[in-house]
Amino acid sequence: NFQRVILEFAEKNRQVILPGYTHLQYAQPVFFSHHLLAYFWMLERDKLRLKDCYVRVNVLPLGVGALAGTSLPIDRAYVARLLNFPLITENSMDTVSDRDYVLEFLCCVALLMMHLSRLSEDLILWSSPAFSFVEISDAFTTGSSLMPQKKNPDVAELTRAKTARVYGDLFSLLATMKALPLSYNRDLQEDKSSLFEAVKIIKQCLKLYPRMIGKMKLKHENMRKQAQKGFFAATDLADYLVEKGVPFREAHGMVGKLVKHCLKENKSFEDLALKDYQKISSLFEANVFQRIKLEESVFNKESTGGTGKKSLARQIKLAREKLEEGENPIAS
Protein backbone atom coordinates (compact mmCIF):
# COMPACT_ATOMS: atom_id res chain seq x y z
CA ASN A 1 0.00 0.00 0.00
CA PHE A 2 1.01 3.58 -0.59
CA GLN A 3 1.70 4.54 3.01
CA ARG A 4 3.95 1.51 3.46
CA VAL A 5 5.90 2.35 0.29
CA ILE A 6 6.40 5.92 1.51
CA LEU A 7 7.57 4.75 4.92
CA GLU A 8 9.99 2.18 3.51
CA PHE A 9 11.42 4.68 1.03
CA ALA A 10 11.84 7.20 3.85
CA GLU A 11 13.62 4.64 6.05
CA LYS A 12 15.90 3.65 3.20
CA ASN A 13 16.97 7.27 2.57
CA ARG A 14 16.90 8.70 6.08
CA GLN A 15 20.41 10.22 5.84
CA VAL A 16 19.70 12.26 2.69
CA ILE A 17 19.53 16.04 3.17
CA LEU A 18 17.24 18.15 1.00
CA PRO A 19 16.62 21.90 0.70
CA GLY A 20 13.34 22.78 2.40
CA TYR A 21 11.25 25.49 0.78
CA THR A 22 8.69 28.11 1.70
CA HIS A 23 7.22 30.26 -1.09
CA LEU A 24 9.32 28.00 -3.36
CA GLN A 25 12.35 29.83 -1.95
CA TYR A 26 15.06 27.86 -0.15
CA ALA A 27 14.40 28.25 3.56
CA GLN A 28 16.08 25.57 5.71
CA PRO A 29 17.63 22.16 5.08
CA VAL A 30 15.63 19.08 6.09
CA PHE A 31 15.96 15.34 5.77
CA PHE A 32 14.43 14.05 2.55
CA SER A 33 12.64 11.45 4.67
CA HIS A 34 11.04 14.19 6.75
CA HIS A 35 9.69 15.83 3.60
CA LEU A 36 8.37 12.56 2.18
CA LEU A 37 6.76 11.50 5.46
CA ALA A 38 4.60 14.64 5.32
CA TYR A 39 2.62 12.74 2.68
CA PHE A 40 2.36 9.69 4.94
CA TRP A 41 0.49 11.79 7.48
CA MET A 42 -1.68 13.40 4.81
CA LEU A 43 -2.70 9.91 3.71
CA GLU A 44 -3.29 8.95 7.33
CA ARG A 45 -5.81 11.78 7.65
CA ASP A 46 -7.39 10.73 4.36
CA LYS A 47 -7.75 7.19 5.69
CA LEU A 48 -9.42 8.41 8.88
CA ARG A 49 -11.78 10.67 6.94
CA LEU A 50 -12.86 7.80 4.70
CA LYS A 51 -13.42 5.56 7.69
CA ASP A 52 -15.53 8.22 9.33
CA CYS A 53 -17.44 8.77 6.10
CA TYR A 54 -18.25 5.05 6.01
CA VAL A 55 -20.18 5.43 9.28
CA ARG A 56 -22.74 7.60 7.44
CA VAL A 57 -22.68 5.48 4.28
CA ASN A 58 -23.37 2.27 6.21
CA VAL A 59 -26.99 3.14 7.06
CA LEU A 60 -29.94 1.12 5.73
CA PRO A 61 -32.30 3.13 3.46
CA LEU A 62 -34.58 0.19 2.50
CA GLY A 63 -38.24 0.32 3.41
CA VAL A 64 -39.03 4.02 3.13
CA GLY A 65 -41.12 3.71 -0.05
CA ALA A 66 -41.27 6.54 -2.56
CA LEU A 67 -41.23 9.28 0.08
CA ALA A 68 -43.84 8.61 2.79
CA GLY A 69 -42.97 5.15 4.08
CA THR A 70 -45.40 2.24 3.70
CA SER A 71 -48.54 0.86 5.28
CA LEU A 72 -47.27 -2.70 4.84
CA PRO A 73 -46.17 -4.52 8.05
CA ILE A 74 -42.41 -4.39 7.44
CA ASP A 75 -39.67 -4.43 10.05
CA ARG A 76 -36.81 -2.23 8.86
CA ALA A 77 -34.67 -2.94 11.90
CA TYR A 78 -34.97 -6.69 11.22
CA VAL A 79 -33.85 -6.15 7.61
CA ALA A 80 -30.93 -4.08 8.87
CA ARG A 81 -29.83 -6.92 11.14
CA LEU A 82 -30.09 -9.44 8.30
CA LEU A 83 -27.98 -7.23 6.02
CA ASN A 84 -25.56 -6.27 8.79
CA PHE A 85 -26.36 -2.55 8.82
CA PRO A 86 -25.78 -0.97 12.25
CA LEU A 87 -28.34 1.81 11.67
CA ILE A 88 -31.46 2.66 9.68
CA THR A 89 -32.47 6.06 8.31
CA GLU A 90 -35.05 7.90 10.41
CA ASN A 91 -36.93 10.09 7.93
CA SER A 92 -38.35 8.74 4.68
CA MET A 93 -38.30 12.05 2.81
CA ASP A 94 -34.70 12.70 3.79
CA THR A 95 -33.79 9.14 2.82
CA VAL A 96 -35.04 9.27 -0.78
CA SER A 97 -33.52 12.70 -1.42
CA ASP A 98 -30.27 12.42 0.53
CA ARG A 99 -26.97 12.36 -1.32
CA ASP A 100 -24.86 13.67 1.56
CA TYR A 101 -23.04 10.37 1.77
CA VAL A 102 -21.96 10.66 -1.87
CA LEU A 103 -20.94 14.29 -1.42
CA GLU A 104 -19.02 13.50 1.74
CA PHE A 105 -17.18 10.69 -0.02
CA LEU A 106 -16.36 13.02 -2.92
CA CYS A 107 -15.07 15.61 -0.43
CA CYS A 108 -12.82 12.95 1.10
CA VAL A 109 -11.40 11.79 -2.22
CA ALA A 110 -11.04 15.40 -3.43
CA LEU A 111 -8.77 16.01 -0.44
CA LEU A 112 -6.92 12.78 -1.15
CA MET A 113 -6.42 13.79 -4.78
CA MET A 114 -5.25 17.22 -3.64
CA HIS A 115 -2.54 15.51 -1.59
CA LEU A 116 -1.52 13.38 -4.57
CA SER A 117 -1.46 16.50 -6.73
CA ARG A 118 0.87 18.27 -4.30
CA LEU A 119 3.17 15.25 -4.31
CA SER A 120 2.97 15.26 -8.10
CA GLU A 121 4.07 18.88 -8.18
CA ASP A 122 7.05 18.08 -5.95
CA LEU A 123 8.08 15.24 -8.24
CA ILE A 124 7.62 17.35 -11.36
CA LEU A 125 9.85 20.06 -9.92
CA TRP A 126 12.41 17.67 -8.47
CA SER A 127 12.76 15.73 -11.72
CA SER A 128 13.23 18.86 -13.83
CA PRO A 129 16.80 19.86 -14.87
CA ALA A 130 16.44 23.02 -12.79
CA PHE A 131 16.33 20.88 -9.62
CA SER A 132 17.59 17.45 -10.70
CA PHE A 133 16.86 15.89 -7.30
CA VAL A 134 15.16 12.71 -8.48
CA GLU A 135 14.91 10.48 -11.51
CA ILE A 136 11.51 8.97 -12.23
CA SER A 137 11.54 5.52 -13.80
CA ASP A 138 11.00 5.30 -17.56
CA ALA A 139 7.87 3.26 -16.83
CA PHE A 140 6.15 6.42 -15.56
CA THR A 141 7.49 8.96 -18.05
CA THR A 142 7.31 9.53 -21.80
CA GLY A 143 9.54 11.11 -24.39
CA SER A 144 8.75 13.95 -26.74
CA SER A 145 7.48 13.46 -30.28
CA LEU A 146 9.89 16.19 -31.37
CA MET A 147 12.71 16.55 -28.82
CA PRO A 148 14.77 13.36 -28.37
CA GLN A 149 16.28 14.42 -25.05
CA LYS A 150 12.99 14.91 -23.19
CA LYS A 151 11.75 12.71 -20.35
CA ASN A 152 8.38 13.99 -19.26
CA PRO A 153 6.78 13.04 -15.89
CA ASP A 154 3.45 12.07 -17.44
CA VAL A 155 1.98 10.08 -14.55
CA ALA A 156 2.62 12.92 -12.11
CA GLU A 157 1.24 15.49 -14.55
CA LEU A 158 -1.87 13.44 -15.31
CA THR A 159 -2.49 12.88 -11.60
CA ARG A 160 -2.33 16.63 -11.13
CA ALA A 161 -4.85 17.08 -13.96
CA LYS A 162 -7.11 14.25 -12.75
CA THR A 163 -7.41 16.09 -9.45
CA ALA A 164 -9.34 18.79 -11.28
CA ARG A 165 -11.67 16.11 -12.65
CA VAL A 166 -12.47 14.89 -9.14
CA TYR A 167 -13.04 18.47 -8.00
CA GLY A 168 -15.42 18.80 -10.94
CA ASP A 169 -17.28 15.68 -9.85
CA LEU A 170 -17.75 17.16 -6.38
CA PHE A 171 -18.78 20.61 -7.58
CA SER A 172 -21.10 19.15 -10.21
CA LEU A 173 -23.07 17.18 -7.63
CA LEU A 174 -23.10 20.10 -5.19
CA ALA A 175 -24.54 22.29 -7.96
CA THR A 176 -27.11 19.62 -8.77
CA MET A 177 -28.23 19.39 -5.14
CA LYS A 178 -28.29 23.05 -4.22
CA ALA A 179 -31.84 23.89 -5.35
CA LEU A 180 -33.72 20.59 -5.18
CA PRO A 181 -36.97 20.70 -3.23
CA LEU A 182 -37.95 17.69 -1.13
CA SER A 183 -38.14 14.96 -1.89
CA TYR A 184 -36.92 12.89 -4.86
CA ASN A 185 -36.18 14.53 -8.20
CA ARG A 186 -34.85 12.96 -11.38
CA ASP A 187 -31.81 15.23 -11.15
CA LEU A 188 -30.48 12.84 -8.51
CA GLN A 189 -29.70 10.16 -11.06
CA GLU A 190 -26.75 12.36 -12.09
CA ASP A 191 -24.95 11.40 -8.89
CA LYS A 192 -23.76 8.16 -10.50
CA SER A 193 -21.48 9.67 -13.10
CA SER A 194 -19.74 11.91 -10.54
CA LEU A 195 -19.29 9.10 -8.04
CA PHE A 196 -18.16 6.43 -10.49
CA GLU A 197 -15.66 8.69 -12.23
CA ALA A 198 -14.09 9.80 -8.94
CA VAL A 199 -13.78 6.18 -7.77
CA LYS A 200 -12.18 5.16 -11.05
CA ILE A 201 -9.66 8.00 -10.93
CA ILE A 202 -8.62 7.49 -7.32
CA LYS A 203 -8.17 3.76 -7.83
CA GLN A 204 -5.98 4.35 -10.88
CA CYS A 205 -3.82 6.91 -9.07
CA LEU A 206 -3.40 4.81 -5.94
CA LYS A 207 -2.44 1.84 -8.09
CA LEU A 208 0.29 3.75 -9.94
CA TYR A 209 1.78 5.96 -7.24
CA PRO A 210 3.25 3.29 -4.94
CA ARG A 211 5.05 1.78 -7.93
CA MET A 212 6.35 5.13 -9.11
CA ILE A 213 7.70 6.13 -5.70
CA GLY A 214 9.18 2.68 -5.14
CA LYS A 215 11.18 2.85 -8.37
CA MET A 216 12.26 6.48 -8.03
CA LYS A 217 15.99 7.22 -7.76
CA LEU A 218 17.36 10.03 -5.60
CA LYS A 219 20.25 12.22 -6.69
CA HIS A 220 21.77 12.63 -3.23
CA GLU A 221 24.71 14.80 -4.22
CA ASN A 222 22.56 17.28 -6.14
CA MET A 223 20.26 17.63 -3.14
CA ARG A 224 23.17 18.20 -0.81
CA LYS A 225 24.85 20.66 -3.16
CA GLN A 226 21.71 22.77 -3.34
CA ALA A 227 21.15 22.49 0.41
CA GLN A 228 24.58 24.02 1.05
CA LYS A 229 23.77 27.14 -0.96
CA GLY A 230 22.49 30.40 0.37
CA PHE A 231 22.13 31.40 4.01
CA PHE A 232 20.45 28.20 5.20
CA ALA A 233 21.82 28.65 8.73
CA ALA A 234 20.34 32.12 9.26
CA THR A 235 17.63 30.87 11.62
CA ASP A 236 20.21 28.73 13.43
CA LEU A 237 22.28 31.84 14.07
CA ALA A 238 19.23 33.66 15.41
CA ASP A 239 18.52 30.69 17.69
CA TYR A 240 22.16 30.76 18.80
CA LEU A 241 21.70 34.33 20.01
CA VAL A 242 18.35 33.51 21.63
CA GLU A 243 20.08 30.76 23.62
CA LYS A 244 22.37 33.47 24.95
CA GLY A 245 19.46 35.58 26.14
CA VAL A 246 18.79 37.82 23.14
CA PRO A 247 15.07 38.30 22.37
CA PHE A 248 14.26 36.65 19.05
CA ARG A 249 13.09 39.94 17.52
CA GLU A 250 16.52 41.46 18.14
CA ALA A 251 18.37 38.29 17.11
CA HIS A 252 16.41 38.27 13.85
CA GLY A 253 17.55 41.81 13.10
CA MET A 254 21.20 41.05 13.94
CA VAL A 255 21.33 38.06 11.62
CA GLY A 256 19.60 40.13 8.94
CA LYS A 257 22.48 42.61 9.17
CA LEU A 258 24.93 39.74 8.90
CA VAL A 259 23.22 38.50 5.73
CA LYS A 260 23.26 42.00 4.30
CA HIS A 261 27.01 42.23 5.01
CA CYS A 262 27.60 38.89 3.27
CA LEU A 263 25.64 39.96 0.22
CA LYS A 264 27.60 43.20 0.01
CA GLU A 265 30.93 41.38 0.27
CA ASN A 266 29.79 38.42 -1.86
CA LYS A 267 30.53 35.99 0.97
CA SER A 268 28.80 33.13 2.75
CA PHE A 269 28.57 32.59 6.50
CA GLU A 270 31.45 30.11 6.21
CA ASP A 271 33.66 32.78 4.62
CA LEU A 272 33.37 35.13 7.57
CA ALA A 273 35.91 35.35 10.37
CA LEU A 274 34.88 35.37 14.02
CA LYS A 275 35.59 39.11 14.18
CA ASP A 276 32.98 39.65 11.46
CA TYR A 277 30.37 37.93 13.59
CA GLN A 278 31.44 39.86 16.68
CA LYS A 279 30.98 43.18 14.88
CA ILE A 280 27.29 42.27 14.87
CA SER A 281 27.22 40.89 18.42
CA SER A 282 29.89 40.22 21.00
CA LEU A 283 27.89 37.13 22.02
CA PHE A 284 29.18 35.22 19.01
CA GLU A 285 31.95 32.83 20.03
CA ALA A 286 34.15 30.33 18.21
CA ASN A 287 31.50 27.60 18.51
CA VAL A 288 29.29 29.55 16.13
CA PHE A 289 31.05 27.81 13.23
CA GLN A 290 29.66 24.48 14.40
CA ARG A 291 26.12 25.89 14.21
CA ILE A 292 26.44 26.87 10.55
CA LYS A 293 27.34 23.38 9.36
CA LEU A 294 24.73 21.71 7.17
CA GLU A 295 24.35 18.57 9.29
CA GLU A 296 24.12 20.56 12.49
CA SER A 297 21.38 22.73 11.01
CA VAL A 298 19.33 19.61 10.27
CA PHE A 299 20.22 17.52 13.31
CA ASN A 300 19.38 20.10 15.96
CA LYS A 301 15.69 20.48 15.08
CA GLU A 302 14.65 17.97 17.75
CA SER A 303 11.26 19.38 18.72
CA THR A 304 8.47 16.83 18.30
CA GLY A 305 7.60 16.67 14.62
CA GLY A 306 10.85 18.37 13.60
CA THR A 307 13.45 17.22 11.10
CA GLY A 308 16.13 16.40 13.70
CA LYS A 309 17.74 12.96 13.67
CA LYS A 310 16.10 11.72 16.88
CA SER A 311 12.81 13.39 16.03
CA LEU A 312 12.80 11.72 12.61
CA ALA A 313 13.48 8.34 14.22
CA ARG A 314 10.49 8.87 16.55
CA GLN A 315 8.33 9.85 13.60
CA ILE A 316 9.31 6.75 11.62
CA LYS A 317 8.61 4.56 14.65
CA LEU A 318 5.16 6.14 15.09
CA ALA A 319 4.38 5.74 11.39
CA ARG A 320 5.40 2.07 11.59
CA GLU A 321 3.09 1.61 14.58
CA LYS A 322 0.23 3.18 12.63
CA LEU A 323 0.67 0.61 9.89
CA GLU A 324 0.94 -2.24 12.35
CA GLU A 325 -2.25 -1.34 14.19
CA GLY A 326 -4.10 -3.53 11.72
CA GLU A 327 -6.12 -0.72 10.20
CA ASN A 328 -6.87 -1.17 6.52
CA PRO A 329 -4.59 1.07 4.47
CA ILE A 330 -5.94 3.46 1.88
CA ALA A 331 -4.45 1.63 -1.10
CA SER A 332 -4.24 -2.11 -1.23
From TrEMBL:
GO cellular component entries: cytosol
UniProt-listed InterPro entries: Arg_succ_lyase_C, Argininosuccinate_lyase, Fumarate_lyase_CS, Fumarate_lyase_fam, Fumarate_lyase_N, L-Aspartase-like
Residue span, Fumarate lyase N-terminal domain: 2-168
GO molecular function: argininosuccinate lyase activity
Residues in Argininosuccinate lyase C-terminal domain copies: 231-298
Any GO BP annotation: L-arginine biosynthetic process via ornithine
Matching NCBIfam families: argH (TIGR00838)
PANTHER family: ARGININOSUCCINATE LYASE
Stated name of the protein: Argininosuccinate lyase
